[in-house]
Amino acid sequence: MARILVVGARGIPDVEGGAEKNAEQLFPRLVDIGHEVTLLSLASNVKENSYRGVKLVAVPSLWLLKTDKILYYFAAIYHAIRLRPQIVHLQGLGAALFLWVYKLMGIRTVVRYGSADYILPKWGVLGRLGFRLSEYQLQFADAVISVSETLSQRLAANNFKARVHFIPNAIDEPHPLWSGNVESSEPPYILAVGRVTSQKNVDTLLRAFALFRETSPHYVLRVAGSLSDETYVEALSAFMSDGVTMLGAIPRNQVPALLSHCALYVNLSHHEGNSNATLEAISHGCPILVSDIPENHEMPLGPANFVDQDDVAAVANAFSAAMTKPEAFVVSRAGFLSWDKVAASTNNVYRTIL
């Protein structure tokens, strides 16, 4: 088995973000298989020295160019020199910015490709250039793990077919399950989970909710996610209405309780990889409504679960339909991977490069 250094996840456990959720579920299972795993975490997210066998190392951060990871990535190179891992597992496209350094050090590299970040409007010229440079370097990685077929096709279009492995995210073993009795909550609520950014299309969500509430005034909307994108959050004030609560970032272990009592989980993102938040909602068995984008169509959902994310009226109508017949929006857990299978598949990737 191998010594593995994980670079790119802000921390585990209970840290907001898809890469972080994946890391929290995946790497303890790889420890159980027999690997020695060290994860570099932003210092503010380290509460213990380890989590379920994964060693946690605190790394300093500095907010610069719309990210808190630039200093982190330089520190990661130092820890790679110090620890001499057999594999550096880069947990996201941005983490591959210095992939060439690890290759010069003779370390095998695995990159988890969870999102083509450079297409997101929040990044400036330098940010998009950095992500493009990271994607260019994927051809030098020993293996690339793509979380969606759409992303795999994007790589193939850029002639990065070799060494690409498709391993989507998994659903959880939920507790508690969706109660189905949303009227027991006061008041019943629609729930969105994820960072409040333009990518997540929260402005359309707010406008659609305001329209829906004209005929269903007893419902409220709860948005659980970081408010760190201050410019976008400030712009949302124009769309805020009665019944909307911005919860901010909440610990991951508080999300299940929100999911188990919501009237509807909604994700109107313009862009996703393989949304862990949506998969978690599916795990809990609550009604689901997601944007009509290619990545979401890779999940075994029904026609009712999709909506045009840019059509405010269509979203409001879908809210009404979900309240009238919620069972039509519940997704079967069949056809989704378990985290044990994700770990086994990732272990097979490691075996091919060692």
Report on the structure:
This protein has 354 residues and is α/β, with parallel strands linked by helices. The protein contains twelve helices and 14 strands. It has helices spanning 18-33, 70-83, 99-104, 125-136, 149-157, 202-213, 230-235, 255-261, 276-284, 294-297, 312-324, 339-353; strands at 3-7, 36-42, 50-51, 54-59, 87-90, 108-113, 143-146, 164-166, 189-193, 220-224, 244-248, 264-267, 288-291, 306-307. Helix 1 packs across helix 12 (339-353) and helix 6 packs across helix 11. The longest helix has 16 residues, at 18-33.
Structural class: alpha/beta
Number of domains: 2
What's the architecture of the largest domain in CATH terms?
A: 3-Layer(aba) Sandwich
User: Given the structure, what is the number of helices?
Assistant: 12
Largest beta-sheet characterization = 8 strands, mixed
Residue share in helices? Answer: 25-40%
Query: How much β-strand is present in the residues?
Result: 15-25%
Question: Which SSEs are present, and which pair or pack?
Answer:
Elements: E1 3-7, H1 18-33, E2 36-42, E3 50-51, E4 54-59, H2 70-83, E5 87-90, H3 99-104, E6 108-113, H4 125-136, E7 143-146, H5 149-157, E8 164-166, E9 189-193, H6 202-213, E10 220-224, H7 230-235, E11 244-248, H8 255-261, E12 264-267, H9 276-284, E13 288-291, H10 294-297, E14 306-307, H11 312-324, H12 339-353
Parallel strand pairs: 1-2, 1-5, 2-4, 5-6, 6-7, 7-8, 9-10, 9-12, 10-11, 12-13, 13-14
Antiparallel strand pairs: 3-4
Helix pairs in contact: 1-12, 6-11
